[in-house]
Amino acid sequence: MVKLWSIATSNYTNRLNECLLDLAASAAALPTEVVKIPSVETQPPRGSEPGAAPTLVNSATSGTTTHGPYTGTPTTTGALQAESTLAQSIAPQPNPTATYYNPDGRLTQPQPMPYMPAGGVGMNGTLPVYMVQSDFDYQSVALGVHQEYIELDLFHYGLERFSEQDFLDAGLTVEDRRLIEYMAIQEAGHATLLSNMLGESAPKQCTYNYPFTTVREFLDFNVKLTRWGESGNWGFLSHLDSKEVATLIVQAEAIEARQQSVFRQLLGLHPMPIWFAPGVPQSWHWTLLAQYISSCPENNTRLVWQNFPNLYVTNQANPNRINPNTTEFNEISDASHVNRTGNPSSSHIPANESCVHVNETGYNCGPAISRDKYEPLTFPGRKVFLTWDDPGRPVGPNNSYITSTTAGEPKFVAWVSQLNTTYTELTTTGKNEGFTFQPASEVYETDPALNGTAFIALTDSNPYVTPYNLTMLNPNVRALGLYQAG
């Protein structure tokens, strides 16, 4: 290729000069008169003016919070608890409302108005109220507020931490930086929306402890964080008592899903290697998120959700490698010297093993709209090595939450991606370590169930669960982590 390039260089240079001259001539021929479009001078209403937009709960454009680990002494420990708990788990029971059956597709009940079929929640003329309606609603949305705040800070922080040259070295331009900046501004709106539906006790902005050292690791961490953020919200939306609140969060979540795809593109991964986005329980979301929150303001609202012990994939595939199957054990960035399940893969690898600047289709992992990798990150049947923590570790804001589990000794590995929960057997090889094999199950024919950023859990049994009742698996979860598949 070098010889061919040398031969073509003179022709290319001549043609480039011709194009530049043509461009200059075209520019000179353009009319200099400014075209005036009919308009009036206008400004959006502000403050107390009629029609003024609500204020943001946090600046969309200002700098980041402080960063680093929490070093103080927690004043409160454990998740928020009610005065009493009714049972250790919720027993399955039949659904008494599953009686609608329509064999021919015709309407079975009178229409409430023209062109409107009978049924539907909130379709009887009741005026909507965009506020939470239960403890479940409140705690779910409060968790969502924490997610929006960390994204608001994280996106700004990455731009502050790394220079324009750092981004150029990673194959990204100033315009890519501005895209990330715009996504940060979106988070200020999301945090405001969710906070307003909670009221004055909504959680406030916290400080954070991030694990990355390079632009590539920053992008990798965002791929993981936006996945558990998106999936965490999908997991509870249909269960909210307030359907009005769910409606607004769906509209914010549509943007979160786009952000997940964008960060995958910036990292040189396929933007959407799945047919269905998975939803996970709130305690899974909180487990993955809380370990990156360093401290929160005094009297910040506490959450009820469980923090599971961490599960680590010690041979997690490294997306920075030409051949991810050559990934070494524990090839994870550990800038904060704390092992956490969402830490990005290390980009500090030999240059001849890096795919970042490999200009060859199938092996390049530089930024792109899409990449078709000839060497996938993982594959069905791959041996996956695992280690996990014991419960009792302080985590989260001010180290005030404690990891816990009600499960017995782990026997299975649950893989949660798209619509499926697939179990494989766990082979234990020592204290808190073992292995399993990546499953080959499909959602539908030709669609691998396990793809993209997936969730992985150790369980003491293999109960049947579906996307709607995945929370019922929580009492059986021994440890929880992430798996980069595909």
From TrEMBL:
Which ranges does the record mark as transmembrane? none
Q: From which residue to which does the signal peptide run?
A: none
**InterPro entries xref list:** Rds1 (IPR039254)
Tell me where on the tree of life, at the top rank, the source sits: Eukaryota
Which Pfam family, any one, appears in the UniProt record?
Ferritin_2
Biased composition, class Polar residues, residue ranges: 89-100
Provide ranges: composition bias, Low complexity: 61-77
Q: Where is this region: Disordered?
A: 39-77, 89-114
Its protein name is Stress response protein Rds1, putative (AFU_orthologue AFUA_5G12490)
Say which species the protein is native to.
Answer: Emericella nidulans (strain FGSC A4 / ATCC 38163 / CBS 112.46 / NRRL 194 / M139)
